Amino acid sequence: MSANTVTTNRKRDVQVAEIGKNTLILRSRTWERLKFEVEYSRQKGTTANSYLIQADKKALIDPPGESFTEIYLQELAQHLDFTTLDYIVLGHVNPNRRATLQVLLSQAPQVTLICSRPAANALKTAFPEWESRIQAVRSEDALDLGQGHHLTFVSVPTPRWADGLCTYDFATKILYTDKFFGAHICEDTLFDEDWKSLDAERHYYFDCLHAPQAKQVEVALEKFSVFAAKSYAPAHGPVVRFSLSRFTYDYRQWCQGQKSQELSVALLYASAYGNTAILANAIAQGLIENGVNVKSINCELTDTADITRIVEACDGLIIGSPTLGGHAPTQIQTALGIILSTAAKTKLAGVFGSYGWSGEAIDLIENKLKDANYRLGFESIRVRFTPTPEILQQCQEAGATFAQNLKKTKKLRTPRQVVTETHVDRTEQAVGRIIGSLCVVTTRDEDTHKGVLTSWVSQATFNPPGIMIAIADEQNADLMCHSNDKFVLNILKEGRNVRRYFSRQSTLGDNPFINLSTKTAVNGCLILNEALSYLECTVQNQIKCGDRWLIYAVVDNGEVLENEGLTALEYRKSGSYY
Questions:
Q1: Which residues form the Flavodoxin-like domain (predicted)?
Q2: Is the pLDDT reported for residue 549 higher than 70?
């Protein structure tokens, strides 16, 4: 059994609590893995969060899917007379949620459904008898529930949720974020008091759901920034109250991290019943885990100009399609035409899809790409009906295989670096090939703690153990250039992004430690608990060399904080700058 697997035997339940004025949360909880999709594979359970605002008018936000319908409605009835419910606000619509809505609306026929226009169209198609009860809203539309509960809506469409809608309540300053800022984890804790312990679950959730649509997530973050939110109320996991700014910062950094990857893949798809989209998500996860930026394109929602631009810029392309009436949907045929006419034939390609009977669309796409001399990065994936956990694992592995083949292809086609004209440039490039351990040097100025990022450190002596470090004036050199000055060298761990809190120079008034777990060393300086190891040092000798102070310090004490893990290294392209 995986170390991440939940072993509790607790039954599913609904946790109810007040999170603001006239506002309840109803968390439908399962302590076991709810579904088999990649996003749930941490197997720590999940919560389906719903919210009830009871002011002059009553609004229910995001009822859960059908796996919780019975226990949810039983608990909801303890807190609400269904005949008094005025509105149901939907962050998105899917078949699971429709099942709960059917039962709920049968008991509350007076309710008005509030949703985005794409969601309204989907609901009207599935339930034409509901048409008069559906109210479509757009960004900045408002709904006044009374007693200060003035709701404002934010349209946040993404390739995965074209009907995305978030809601802000001015009375409680709660932003109901639906699929943003969530995590698949089930605990008794309602809020994020111990937010550091949630980092792994939050990042995994982002990678699975949002990394392939990072561009649209950044747009959503900008829309959220205009609200003075004090809490995020997501669809899954704890309510975000204590790490609001940190979590928002993380989302921005994770989006930037995706865009900064050297290689990118355009993942184009359409999905009639959701199965092809599930395959796309699994393939995307395999690519992301192997350091490839995925640009997810739902061809049903993306115009041809955007498809053309992304296809031209990407290093590889993967296209997925359902089969409808023996053919690929029109949107996929259009996307395939764009690929064949604009994408270089040297780009790696891939094909996948789901079908009910024959699967002709997959064969059509594969043959068209092969006839045009595109090379396939994995064997085409054909899935009949709903994918199984084994098939999704194969999709992840296919994504990983595609990433490795793409890297090999890129390496073979990358021209040798052209020698620069001047000797100075060649020297700078050569010096830049010196690598060093990425560290944070922490110092203390009376009651103020400071820290700077550096990689200019090396071991200088064995007995006593000593190090040599080069420090600039703007890196708190005044606290390290005298004999007996103290500092701590925190050696960072590869894959842990502590460096984002520190810069190469110290800024007056800046406190990079506010979001980090620390402890105080014997010498009074701070130890970063997320470091791989640390050394407590005392300065012995110093000399001014060019634009740096060269410091020799002996190591008074040290400790390895994590026995497993690699030292973070810094690679530079030039010796004339960091």
A1: 265-403
A2: yes
DSSP H or E stretch at residue 491: strand 486-491
Q: Which of 352, 366, 346 is nearest to 409 (CA)?
A: 346
Residue 298 near residue 267, CB atoms below 8 Å: no
Q: What is the CA radius of gyration of the chain?
A: 27
Query: What is the bridge-based pairing of β-strands 486-491 and 533-545?
Result: antiparallel
Strand partners, 155: 165
Residue 481 backbone class (left: φ over 0; alpha: ψ -120 to 50; beta: rest):
alpha
* Cα 423 to Cα 428: distance, rounded to the nearest angstrom: 9
CB 457 within 8 A of CB 436: yes
Count Cβ atoms below 10 Å from residue 150 Cβ, excluding itself. 15
Highest mean pLDDT among 219-228, 404-413, 434-443: 219-228
Confidence of residue 8 (pLDDT cuts 50, 70, 90): low
pTM given for the model: 0.67
Angle at 478 between CA 473 and CA 484, to 5 degrees: 135
Rounded-to-10 torsion of CA 502, 505, 507, 511: 20
Q: How many alpha carbons fall within 13 Å on the CB side of residue 31?
A: 12
Taking only the tens place, the pLDDT of each residue in 63-109 is 999 999 999 999 999 999 999 999 999 999 988 899 999 999 999 99
The vertex-208 CA angle with 206 and 213, nearest 5°, equals 70
- Going from the C-alpha of 168 to that of each of 80, 89, 171, 248, the distances in angstroms are 22, 12, 9, 16
Return the H-helix or E-strand segment holding 278: helix 275-288
How far apart (Å, rounded) are the C-alpha atoms in residues 57 and 143? 10
Q: Which long-range contacts (C-beta less than 8 Å, at least 24 apart) are formed by 253-260?
A: 253/497, 253/500, 254/203, 254/206, 254/207, 254/210, 254/211, 254/214, 255/210, 255/214, 255/215, 255/217, 255/218, 255/221, 258/211, 258/214, 258/288, 258/293, 258/294, 259/214, 259/293, 260/293
